[in-house]
Design goal:
GO molecular function, one term: serine-type peptidase activity
Distance between the termini: 40 Å
Radius of gyration: 24 Å
Order of helices and strands: HHHEHEEHEEHEHEEEHEEEEEHHHE
Domain Tail specific protease: 150-359
CATH architecture of the largest domain: Alpha-Beta Complex
Organism: Legionella pneumophila
Shape: elongated
Region (Disordered): 409-445
Number of strands: 15
InterPro entries: ClpP/crotonase-like_dom_sf, Tail-specific_protease
Largest sheet: 7 strands, mixed
Number of domains: 2
């Protein structure tokens, strides 16, 4: 009788059987949640077998696929298999890149930062590779302005007293800090830009953090720097548990030049929000649970749900003991634990769940502006928003519905409300609302 771990060689060619076994063995060694992997290993293996069969029939045009594919076919194979791997864990990914393998040795751990640069996970990246990464950062439009793009907001939509920041990428604060490459100094310049952006928010009465646009994550240290502006010093933020090293690292709010502790904040999220930018939203959303006067409202749609930092590992050949010279596997090797929820945005509910769901066909930025306008009088002590700011035509339309928004806000389960010290009003199911309201799911213990 065939053992469960074996794949029938009549179904797939040996090179594909080896590839699947290499993926499973590498996950067995390094995946951050070994119990989850053990429980779902057979299911994952079967899904990979089925996907390989589909690829052989529809893409490689060879049911038996005894001939090794071309580079283009290899890339398509990895893309198809990643549909299965991403369903298991959004950070889990197989990548076709033989050039990486040339620099690898068995047992090395390699950290990918983009599609052309290898970072040695244990010893740090060589100088020339840092410089390549920095050039990539300079040339990539999603990382211009060091990850903070369009921080003045779309012209004409955002009132003068509302601050808007589009966070596109979380650059490692340490990247470029060494003496060996002063040309770009990405990390220090990213922190400098962060301080410039946050300085511009000091005189605003409401803030929008837009995390919904780009699909990039980034550095947990940059997450720490961002959320620290909104928390008292030493507030616990997140703990990362590393299975590979057996260690854990706790992040706490650090001292910043000033704090933004007294302003309502809307955090825009959506399907593109991933990894570190998910953590930014989740950290502030969970911190909000500890506040008597709620300040943070997450709006938009559920995020992708990737809470496990990944590292790229070579695939050890299961037949000959060498290294697969075609693929590397990005394996989530660590998991994040929030000090308030006791879980994260992947192992609890998949994705950060918005406090207010905005259908994708609606303009989430306009909704956020409208929502903040309904809150600002409670914070600013001004007689009305109209008397304290310049009003554009679009903003005037938003202000016209302020009364409707205030009535609506009073019934939103998790909306900020500092007009009283009463607990949140329970949802009225009979309420006809411009939004779909999604109560927070219970946290899994």
């Amino acid at each position: 009788m065939q053992r469960k771990s074996e794949i029938n060689p009549e179904i797939l060619p040996q090179w594909q059987i080896d590839l699947i076994n290499q993926v499973l063995n590498t996950m067995d060694n390094y995946y951050c949640l070994p119990d989850k992997f053990s429980e779902k290993k057979e299911e994952l293996k079967n899904a990979l077998v089925i996907k390989c069969k589909e690829v052989n029939e529809t893409i490689l045009n060879d049911v038996s696929s005894r001939v090794l594919p071309s580079p283009e076919q290899y890339k398509e194979l990895s893309s198809q298999l990643n549909e299965v791997l991403h369903n298991f864990d959004p950070h889990l990914e197989l990548e076709y890149n033989p050039k990486f393998i040339e620099k690898m040795k068995a047992g090395n751990k390699i950290k990918l930062r983009d599609n052309s640069v290898i970072f040695d996970f244990s010893e740090g990246p060589p100088k020339e590779e840092i410089e390549k990464w920095n050039q990539y950062e300079q040339d990539n439009p999603n990382t211009r302005n060091f990850g903070f793009i369009d921080y003045q907001g779309p012209s004409g939509l955002i009132p003068d007293n509302i601050g808007y920041v589009n966070i596109s990428h979380l650059i490692d604060p340490q990247l470029g800090a060494s003496e060996t490459e002063k040309k770009y100094r990405m990390g220090p310049n990213a922190i400098k830009r962060l301080h410039e952006v946050m300085n511009g928010l000091q005189k605003k009465e409401g803030i929008i953090l837009d995390l919904s646009v780009t699909p990039y994550g980034g550095s947990p240290e940059m997450v720490q720097n961002i959320v620290s502006f909104f928390m008292p010093d030493d507030t616990p933020i997140n703990t990362v548990h590393d299975r590979v090293t057996g260690t854990q690292k706790t992040y706490e709010a650090i001292s910043t030049p000033w704090k933004l502790l007294d302003k309502p904040v809307v955090i825009l999220v959506g399907p593109n929000t991933f990894s570190g930018r998910e953590e930014t939203a989740y950290d502030l959303q969970q911190f909000n649970m500890t506040l008597k006067e709620k300040r943070f409202t997450v709006m938009g749609q559920s995020t992708k749900g990737g809470a496990h930092p990944e590292c790229s590992f070579p695939l050890v050949d299961t037949t000959f003991g060498g290294i697969n010279d075609t693929f590397v596997l990005r394996v989530p090797y660590a998991t994040s634990i929030n000090p308030i929820s006791g879980t994260n945005w992947e192992d609890g509910s998949r994705g950060v769940q918005p406090d207010i769901v905005i259908p994708k066909e609606e303009n989430s930025l306009m909704v956020a502006v409208e929502y903040l306008i309904s809150l600002i009088p409670q914070y600013s002590k001004a007689e009305s928003v109209i008397q304290t700011q310049h009003i554009t035509g679009e903003t005037e339309e938003l202000l016209a519905s302020r009364e409707r928004m205030q009535e609506f806000k009073a019934k939103v389960p998790h909306a900020p409300d500092i007009s009283s010290n009463q607990e949140d009003v329970k949802k009225d199911d009979s309420l006809t609302s411009p939004f779909q309201i999604t109560p927070k799911p219970p946290q899994e213990q």
